[in-house]
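User: Let's play a game. I give you a shape written as tokens, and you guess the letters that built it. Ready? Here's round one.
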């Protein structure tokens, strides 16, 4: 990876324009790939593709081994004769093309997908080829997710912690009974995963043939309400009742005086080490099958992780525990011949985290929005980069847009930014281009720019504001936003800065 200077863009799949309320693997995704190629880009970075639940966060998925049914392109199901255009258009997916209405998506999409499944079943050949196709296409871990979702539906969508005891603790007799009683519902979810994988691989192949590599993002942690924690409690810090003893988060900092309480279960790293990190190796194999490059979120958690008592309501009283360290990455490199990984090494970095990153050889991240603080001494300032082995972002999905960030700067920080950039005379509505140029001109081998920054949008286009609920993961790009003029400007800059 990154043998030469290159650039790419960051855009979640959900943020693509489409006919049916949320971005998907539709014709608009293929058109976006074409635009990237025309713009001289070589990478498309997306957010996690897993199925989402309460809060709609792609970082709180029902499984580390499954795809989000929302991304299945309905038009391809129409082409296969599994749905009709009239059926799809009759559903209310929301009226605002710039905003995802998740409640309407949930209520409208699953009945359609169920209808497609019923027609798919009827088309099954007499010798059972459809079922054989599912069995061969899906991994055991993906099938476990499908079982989990079928049981979850039978309990009205409740987390497994609130299921009947026999199935909650996976008594063998109960597991057999539920598998038999819910066979058709399990098959429905397997059908969805089959369609997801088929459509995603088709899109990824198209992107690769156009010279675009896909950067995927995997969270370090899984959700408590997930097939992973239910099916494999031995992997996590659970008590005898299956309840978390401690959960993940971040300590208090300048962004949050009480810290961030994520609530994810923490790993029993000693158990993982004893098994040769078998579960993690399976997870990475699944991820490498989806993406060309994997960005590992919260890299510092492999060095040391923040442990918060499960009963606490804030992250204020957690403490640091030792992570698996380089041993994990050594096992990873022994298992896979060639690993293309980006380490999300943001936040306060201790010397041991820096040493771990150096040992792995993975590129870390630099974020320009973090560079212009009031001290003027940030390591994210381009002249302080000590290696080309890094990936520069203007901002990430967790940050303000460039325009929003600039408008929010304190007077002192803005004065420093203006002095550093020498852009006192740049019109306000063009200021984002100065910082995009700074990123592209840097010594970093790879630069990734969020699409919102190329579009010069304000914080109305922000993807996520950490520690908040109800307003995140909703922004969508307009169908006509990537104009010929903008594409040509992107191409010119990529060429100008040797990318």
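Assistant: Ready! My guess for every position:
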């Amino acid at each position: 990876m990154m043998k030469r200077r290159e650039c790419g863009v960051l855009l979640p799949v959900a943020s693509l324009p489409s006919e049916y309320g949320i971005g998907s693997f539709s014709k608009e995704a293929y058109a976006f790939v074409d635009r990237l190629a025309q713009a001289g880009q070589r990478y498309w970075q997306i957010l996690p593709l897993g199925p989402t639940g309460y809060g709609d966060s792609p970082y709180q998925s029902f499984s580390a081994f499954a795809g989000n049914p929302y991304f299945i392109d309905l038009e391809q199901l129409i082409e296969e004769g599994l749905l009709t255009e009239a059926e799809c258009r009759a559903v209310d997916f929301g009226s605002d093309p710039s905003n995802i209405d998740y409640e309407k998506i949930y209520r409208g999409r699953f009945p359609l997908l169920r209808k497609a499944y019923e027609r798919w079943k009827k088309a099954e050949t007499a010798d059972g080829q459809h079922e054989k196709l599912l069995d061969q296409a899906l991994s055991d871990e993906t099938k476990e997710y499908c079982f989990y979702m079928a049981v979850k539906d039978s309990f009205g969508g409740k987390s497994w912690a609130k299921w009947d005891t026999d199935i909650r603790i996976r008594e063998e007799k109960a597991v057999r009974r539920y598998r038999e009683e819910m066979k058709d519902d399990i098959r429905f979810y397997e059908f969805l995963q089959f369609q997801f994988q088929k459509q995603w691989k088709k899109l990824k192949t198209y992107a690769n043939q156009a010279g675009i590599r896909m950067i995927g993002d995997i969270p370090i942690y899984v959700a408590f309400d997930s097939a992973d924690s239910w099916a494999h409690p031995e992997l996590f810090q659970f008590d005898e009742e299956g309840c978390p003893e401690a959960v993940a988060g971040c300590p208090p900092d300048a962004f949050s005086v009480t810290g961030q309480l994520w609530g994810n279960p923490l790993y029993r790293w000693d158990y993982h080490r004893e098994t040769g990190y078998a579960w993690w190796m399976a997870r990475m194999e699944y991820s490498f099958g989806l993406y060309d490059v994997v960005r590992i979120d919260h890299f510092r958690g492999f060095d040391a992780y923040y442990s918060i008592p499960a009963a606490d309501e804030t992250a204020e009283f957690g403490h640091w525990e030792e992570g698996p360290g380089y041993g994990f990455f050594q096992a990873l490199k022994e298992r896979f011949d060639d690993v293309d990984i980006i380490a999300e090494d943001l936040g306060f970095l201790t010397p041991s985290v820096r040493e771990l990153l150096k040992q792995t050889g993975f590129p870390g991240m630099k974020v320009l929005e973090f560079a212009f603080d009031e001290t003027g001494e940030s390591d994210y300032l381009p002249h302080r980069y000590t290696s080309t082995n890094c990936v520069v972002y203007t901002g990430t999905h967790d940050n303000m847009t460039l325009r929003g960030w600039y408008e929010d700067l304190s007077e002192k920080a803005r004065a420093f930014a203006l002095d550093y950039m020498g852009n006192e005379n740049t019109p306000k509505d063009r200021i984002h281009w100065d910082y995009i140029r700074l990123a592209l001109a840097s010594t970093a081998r790879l630069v990734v720019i969020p699409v919102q920054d190329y579009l010069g949008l304000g914080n109305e286009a922000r993807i996520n504001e950490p520690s908040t609920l109800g307003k995140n993961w909703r922004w969508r790009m307009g169908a006509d936003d990537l104009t010929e003029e903008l594409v040509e400007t992107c191409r010119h800059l990529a060429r100008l800065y040797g990318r």
